Structure formats: C-alpha cells, structure tokens
TrEMBL record:
TM annotation in the entry: none
Motif (Histidine triad motif): 98-102
InterPro entries to which the protein is assigned, alphabetical: HINT (IPR039384), Histidine_triad_CS (IPR019808), Histidine_triad_HIT (IPR001310), HIT-like (IPR011146), HIT-like_sf (IPR036265)
Source organism of this protein record: Lacticaseibacillus mingshuiensis
Designated name of the protein: HIT family protein
Amino acid sequence: MTDCVFCKIVSNEIPSTVVYEDDVVKAFLDLTQVTKGHTLVVPKKHVPDIFAYDAELAAQVFARLPKIARAIRDSDPKITGMNILINNGEVAYQSVFHSHIHLIPRYDASDDFSIHFGDHSAQYDSAKLQAVADSITEKVGD
C-alpha cells in the first residue's frame, strides 16, 4: 500500500529502529516509547487489522511473539511484566491502519501506562452471558 507508513517502514523507505526482522514480520521500537522498549510487531503483508488475517498469516505472526517478547524482557532486568495489545478500529485506538502488535514492557505499577477495564458484571446474569456466548459461538464456524 503506497500511503501506509508501516508499509514504508517494512520496505525501508522510512527509517526505524529494528529489533527483529524476518520474511514475515518486522519488529521495531515505537517512537512513543510508552515504556522503555515499547516495540511494534508488524506483518510485512499489509493487512488493516486482525479481522483481515487468514489462519496462515495469524499462525506465522503470532508464532514470533514469544521470541520477541522474551528478548525484550531479557534486555532489562527491571522488566517485570509486559502488556501485549492489538488495537482494531478507530474506536479501539488504532491510529495506523496496518495491523500491529504492541509489546509494552512493564517495570512497576507506577510506570506511565495503564489499562482501565470497567466492571459491568452486575448487568449480566447467567442467561444474558449465555445469550452473548451463543451469538459468538454460532459465528465461530463462519
């Protein structure tokens, strides 16, 4: 895709700080560095989001995540955890519409990163949960 910033990074038209690269993915430091070592893993094939992956691409991309995550973790003894995030769609904070996976090292509870999950459990009894599950389950085979 000619106007995609990540496609340009993959093709080396735009410089990046690469931490890993092979024939399927390129992993490079995110310019924002939410925490030190914040890395993006980008499939070399342009796909806009997770919904566009086929099984083969998903297997290839996700098979590389543990290796890259361990390398990040092992690069600094102060890293005690890691958030692995994929934002899909503008409402989910996706800002570049070439699928990418954020590997965000965590140092301690006071580093500058948080995720807030709202608790809406009071709105769902077992019947409502089952209805949601059923609507998802019937689409899994598609």
